[in-house]
């Protein structure tokens, strides 16, 4: 058609017209009958990607101060809505909860979670309900917490012993490493029945899965780049999912063999329960027949939900106590009064530790483990006067809501647990100014397990030991920056000096 000398200019001209048309379309919100929420001007191709930075929750907070609590962005080619006030969160997570109860799925969740199966990433509907029912009934309900309490106790006792040794030697403790290691061991034992494997690097595989889950993947928002795999994520996901699948297959087979040899069907871990259900004939009560892929995806979903979240919550709470000796002292006084100095804390003591409860709430307000709650609308929908497209990414900025001075007064940035004293605000997601476990249908199903674990670990660490920042560091010098991913951990490990507080060893 064209001579070769014309082909390049014509191609460039057509590309230019295409880019300009997308640019005009994406910035033409208000003249459109479908009015989108206000937001910053979107650039061609990348949209507003350049505004996210490495700490998107902070940058989105600044943008929301300018554009409002329901803000429209374009992430590459994907529309996004950022929700940043209690009133707006109420609209998305409560008033219109059924419409916004889907999660957006990504290339990584498709590869690692068997086509985005399991509880965390599947769309709201009958499959999701079946996964939730199985998970709550056999792992997350209150009655299960009593059954799995002994795992927490045994693992925590080992950490206490190792800290006593560190105290004796005057060592500086890498608190972050200790806490993450402890939570890994607790969660893997409860869910998989083991915390290591003689053939596979169990911990390495799962931590790489969590890392990949938190990487911002350009291919999700600029689909024309997907085939190029510029970040190498597709390749890495394929490698990891292949090995992880072999590990899960091995664990499932071992449980199947155990079922065949012990016909009593005795089991003590979650994956074993799912395996036995897979081999039971379908009946009315269990009307979804669970498959091998469902087991693998759901187990991975629950591990992703359970381990890092609880570890990050403990890490931040410990950081705040080290920065706030007044609060540390109050908490130790409560422990001394309720528990006494002659024994370790037991899980049954937790309900009597009111100040501990306030401390954990305050820590989750300032350091929500999930900074941006991800949702997706099931259909095109109007929220107030705004039109929200079906495939939009909804991001509820929990971090911004937790630090809003209009909600929490001028001392919003201060760690002050007493703000929850005599207040009606609870932690269960009923209040739209404070919902660290989310709200509505997709609210965290592991709240009970998460809270029990975080409080138990915190109570034990603070009761058994005295803690101080190392090298004479001043409280204000402690680096409190975050690192954004699937969760929001500290960017730098927390280190501290530890000394024994109880005069005798009580855990033998
Ligand atoms: C301190 C601990 C924890 C915190 C702060 C936390 C927070 C959250 C948040 C904010 C969500 C999103 C909720 C929403 O969309 O409204 C969530 C979802 C989820 N959490 Fe947790 N979580 C914690 C512990 C756990 C534990 C221990 C488990 C499981 C054993 C767990 C499993 C899950 C799962 C499976 C989902 C997805 C639910 C769904 O999509 O239906 N979480 N969590």
From TrEMBL:
<dbReference type="InterPro" id="IPR002401">
    <property type="entry name" value="Cyt_P450_E_grp-I"/>
</dbReference>
<keyword id="KW-0349">Heme</keyword>
<feature type="transmembrane region" description="Helical">
    <location>
        <begin position="6"/>
        <end position="26"/>
    </location>
</feature>
<feature type="binding site" description="axial binding residue">
    <location>
        <position position="444"/>
    </location>
    <ligand>
        <name>heme</name>
    </ligand>
</feature>
<dbReference type="GO" id="GO:0004497">
    <property type="term" value="F:monooxygenase activity"/>
</dbReference>
<keyword id="KW-0812">Transmembrane</keyword>
<dbReference type="GO" id="GO:0005506">
    <property type="term" value="F:iron ion binding"/>
</dbReference>
<dbReference type="InterPro" id="IPR036396">
    <property type="entry name" value="Cyt_P450_sf"/>
</dbReference>
<protein>
    <recommendedName>
        <fullName>Cytochrome P450</fullName>
    </recommendedName>
</protein>
<dbReference type="GO" id="GO:0020037">
    <property type="term" value="F:heme binding"/>
</dbReference>
<dbReference type="GO" id="GO:0016020">
    <property type="term" value="C:membrane"/>
</dbReference>
<keyword id="KW-0408">Iron</keyword>
<keyword id="KW-1133">Transmembrane helix</keyword>
<dbReference type="InterPro" id="IPR001128">
    <property type="entry name" value="Cyt_P450"/>
</dbReference>
<keyword id="KW-0560">Oxidoreductase</keyword>
<keyword id="KW-0472">Membrane</keyword>
<comment type="similarity">
    <text>Belongs to the cytochrome P450 family.</text>
</comment>
<keyword id="KW-0503">Monooxygenase</keyword>
<dbReference type="InterPro" id="IPR017972">
    <property type="entry name" value="Cyt_P450_CS"/>
</dbReference>
<dbReference type="Pfam" id="PF00067">
    <property type="entry name" value="p450"/>
</dbReference>
<keyword id="KW-0479">Metal-binding</keyword>
<dbReference type="GO" id="GO:0016705">
    <property type="term" value="F:oxidoreductase activity, acting on paired donors, with incorporation or reduction of molecular oxygen"/>
</dbReference>
């Amino acid at each position: 058609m064209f001579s070769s000398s014309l082909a390049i200019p014509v191609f460039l001209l057509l590309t230019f017209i295409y880019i300009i048309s997308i640019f005009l379309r994406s910035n033409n919100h208000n003249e459109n009958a479908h009015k989108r929420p206000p937001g910053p001007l979107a650039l061609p191709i990348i949209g507003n990607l350049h505004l996210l930075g490495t700490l998107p929750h902070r940058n989105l907070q600044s943008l929301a101060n300018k554009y409002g609590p329901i803000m429209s962005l374009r992430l590459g080619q994907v529309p996004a809505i950022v929700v940043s006030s209690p009133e707006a969160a109420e609209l998305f997570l409560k008033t219109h909860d059924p419409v916004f109860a889907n999660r957006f799925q990504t290339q990584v969740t498709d590869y690692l979670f068997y086509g985005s199966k399991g509880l965390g990433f599947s769309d709201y509907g009958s499959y999701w309900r079946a996964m939730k029912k199985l998970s709550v009934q056999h792992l997350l309900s209150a009655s299960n917490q009593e059954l799995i309490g002994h795992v927490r106790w045994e693992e925590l006792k080992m950490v206490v012993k190792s800290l006593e040794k560190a105290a004796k030697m005057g060592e500086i403790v890498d608190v972050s490493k200790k806490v993450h290691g402890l939570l890994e061991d607790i969660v893997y034992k409860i869910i998989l029945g083991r915390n290591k494997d003689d053939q596979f690097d169990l911990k390495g595989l799962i931590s790489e899965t969590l890392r990949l889950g938190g990487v911002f993947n350009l291919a999700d928002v600029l689909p024309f780049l997907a085939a190029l795999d510029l970040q190498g994520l597709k390749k890495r996901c394929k490698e990891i999912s292949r090995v992880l699948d072999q590990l899960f297959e091995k664990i499932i087979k071992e449980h199947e063999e155990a079922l065949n040899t012990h016909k009593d069907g005795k089991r003590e871990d979650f994956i074993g329960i799912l395996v036995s259900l897979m081999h039971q004939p379908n009946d009315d009560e269990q009307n979804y027949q669970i498959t091998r892929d469902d087991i693998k995806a759901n187990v991975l979903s629950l591990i992703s939900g359970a381990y890092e979240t609880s570890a990050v919550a403990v890490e931040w709470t410990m950081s705040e106590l080290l920065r706030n000796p007044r609060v540390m002292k109050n908490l130790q006084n409560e422990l001394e009064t309720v528990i006494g100095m002659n024994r370790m804390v037991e899980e049954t003591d937790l309900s009597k530790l009111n100040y501990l409860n306030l401390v954990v709430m305050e820590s989750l307000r300032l350091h929500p483990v999930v900074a941006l709650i991800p949702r997706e609308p099931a259909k095109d929908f109007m929220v107030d006067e705004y039109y929200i497209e079906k495939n939009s990414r909804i991001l509820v900025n929990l971090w911004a809501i937790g630090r809003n001075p209009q909600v929490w007064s001028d001392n919003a940035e201060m760690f002050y647990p007493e703000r929850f004293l005599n207040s009606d605000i609870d932690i269960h997601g009923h209040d739209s100014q404070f919902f660290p476990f989310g709200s509505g249908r997709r609210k965290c199903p592991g709240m009970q397990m998460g809270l029990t674990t975080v409080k138990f670990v915190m109570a034990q660490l603070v009761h058994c030991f005295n803690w101080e920042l190392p090298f004479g560091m001043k409280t204000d010098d402690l680096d409190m920056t975050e690192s954004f991913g699937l969760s929001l951990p500290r960017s730098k490990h927390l280190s501290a000096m530890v000394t024994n507080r109880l005069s005798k060893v009580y855990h033998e």
